[in-house]
Fold this protein.
Amino acid sequence: MSYPIVLTGPLTAAVIGGGPVAERKTQGLLQAAATVTVVSPQLTPALEQWARAGRLTAIRRAYRPGDLRGARLAVAATNDPAVNAAVADEADERGCPVNVVDDPSRCTFHTPAVVRRGEVVIGVSTGGASPALARRLRGEIEAILGPEYEPLADILARLRLRLRDPESGASRAAPAWDRLIDELLPLLRAGEDRAAREAAERFAAAAGQEGER
């Protein structure tokens, strides 16, 4: 069994390997605004481009023990099982979560198939059992989770900060938020962003009046 988590805050990652798999893993990390160091004698054209653009740090040599120093997570994505095993060993010693490509038994985390809508992130994992199934489920979720969820999350985040009690940190009860979401979603789906934000303002005003009673 697996225990899903979402890592927050500054994320520093080490990717060992420079091939297509390392590229996919790196792309996902960059999408999460991670600081990435890629260690490999050779890099794919995309990794080279990202390195030239300053999006990642490239160390153009083979892996050496110590390359995981400072990393909060690691990816072993070379085509050499012995090197991948050495990376996993170092990660274990450092208490650093590691994903070892094609070796689920050495992984301490799996990268899910991800659907992103701004701050809304949904990950689908099969625990390494079937990446194809994870991709299939991701596609089904993408069909349901439209682009309107990105502005919705932004509106709700701003409201939550405005309406949080400064002493207790509490905000309005869940049913009130549920009703607001039901009101905003159809507006955002129809492209009526202004109307949605006006509805959110009415919600905030009503909450303020209740707080004054």
User: Anything to note?
Assistant: Residues 112-144 form one domain. Residues 148 and 188 are 5 Å apart (CA to CA).
